[in-house]
Amino acid sequence: MFVDSHCHLNFPQYADQLDAVRAEMAEAKVDRALCISTTLEEFPAVHALAQRFDNMWATVGVHPDNEGVQEPTLDDLLTRAALPRVVGIGETGLDYYRLGERTVADMAWQRERFRVHIRAALQTGLPLVIHTRMASDDTVAILREEGQGKVRGVFHCFTETEAVARQALDLGFHISFSGIITFKNAGDIREVARFVPADRCLIETDSPYLAPAPHRGKTNSPAYVAFVARQLAEVKGMSVEEVGRITSANFEDLFSLVKNA
Ligand SMILES: [Zn+2]
Ligand SMILES: [Zn+2]
Predict the structure, then answer these.
(1) Average pLDDT for residues 204-213, to the nearest whole number?
(2) What separation in Å is there between the alpha carbon of 9 and the centre of ligand 2?
(3) Closest CA to 62 of 2, 126, 128
(4) Residue 261: pLDDT band by 50, 70, 90 thresholds?
């Protein structure tokens, strides 16, 4: 009934927990999960999940926060994107949250990395999984310029304003809400969730991070995407079944799962 559109099940937290995680998913009616890459080094482990389990898929990409890792060339992304059950490019984008001593100008390498991912999405036709934090203006501008209006994708774990949501929707992108919408102090994000049309919404956990209430602070699990669905249903005045049905259909449509059935 539900899809976790963004999780990191290759992380060490799940090393000997996958059977338990999958049992929890089944119990919570979470029947599918998309496993997201954050480096090329970890891609084989992410891809292995998608090959081992018929209800999991993988993406290829290098997260903007990751430094000191292999820098992806266009060819690196294209060769991996061509493998079976790889259905998206990312996560990629811009993150100016951890600038430290640096200025935005110093982050040219991040913007260039992002452009390489957009080119891979253009060439493959696969959707982009966008991570953006404290960088929405540049993220949208680069998407517009490099994507030529031809790339689709999702802004994951959305924590931006309604204005940014509007720009993302105008670009044809989906918006994914995480456990953050269940947090007491996240009234602003719930308002954005109310604004985004249901047929453009996805739900995710971003496991192992950001466990939703009532599990906040614990290791997250794809099963908990049901709590995100429940909150989104409340915000939208819909039934949780309806939210499950629509967000699952959106997921299938965006990631063209027919190709990878
Ligand atoms: Zn992210
Ligand atoms: Zn992530």
Answers:
(1) 96
(2) 10
(3) 128
(4) very low
